[in-house]
Amino acid sequence: MRTDELYQMVLSKLGHIKDDEAKLSSVFILLEELEDGNQPSEIVSAEIEDGEEYKNVVMQIADALNDGFICFFNPETLEIEQVDCKAWFHPVEIAERNDDMLDEYELDYLKWNDYLRFDPFDREDLRIAMEDFAEEIDDPELSRKLTDKLEANAPLRDMLKIIRHAGKEDVWNVFKKQEIINYVKGELADTELPE
Length: 195
What we know:
By secondary structure, the chain is mainly α.
């Protein structure tokens, strides 16, 4: 990939976080470290956490999120608990407000000393992933159709129909899964895992 193409990709990613001061601040710190010739701390930790156990944790969480589950991760024990959030009631929200329901729903994560919560992509997350997909897909016609729908603020189901009709559903599913994996890795970047 050429430098100018990479630069444009970085700019487009920055556009997605332009209103999030914390994320922009993190990016700025990383850029300063790079400019000073230092290895950024988040990149170093990503290299350290390249072990098989770390990959398994990332994939288990990503698979659960992709299937629509809320996922809780205990960084001390590497336990993962998945909770189905598709029901009429929301067991996580109910149990977090009512101690009597802990046993009924068997939610172990509330008994852990520390945990991280991962939520499945919401509509806005999926819209952002769809924008990225439209920019990166090697099919100019499909890219144009998706961009038109995105600009018209069309429902995501309309865009998924376009992808299905173009025979690119598998490509979209792989792309979306990678976006979820990147999200999980980003959330785990500052988490100390046991050795």
